[in-house]
Design a protein that fits this description.
Elements (H helix, E strand, L loop, with lengths): L1 H15 L25 H23 L1
Length: 65
């Protein structure tokens, strides 16, 4: 149960932290009309890292059994 809770929290953190990876809006009058400057691909890297970590934990748990 404790492991499930840790895994659920880790997945939630990676899922909902995507909006924190955007740059703040530019100052007024800078000539840039886009409200945010996204960092492309970072969300995919975070998701891949989380999936890899979950797979490693799963494999480690199966090896012990």
């Amino acid at each position: 149960m404790k492991q499930l809770l840790k895994t659920t929290i880790a997945i939630a953190v990676f899922t909902f932290s995507g909006h924190l990876l955007f740059a703040p809006p530019p100052p007024p009058g800078s000539g840039n009309n886009t409200p945010y400057a996204p960092i492309p691909g970072v969300e995919l890297l975070l998701a891949a890292g989380a999936a890899y970590g979950i797979k490693k934990k799963f494999d480690q748990k199966n090896a012990e059994a």
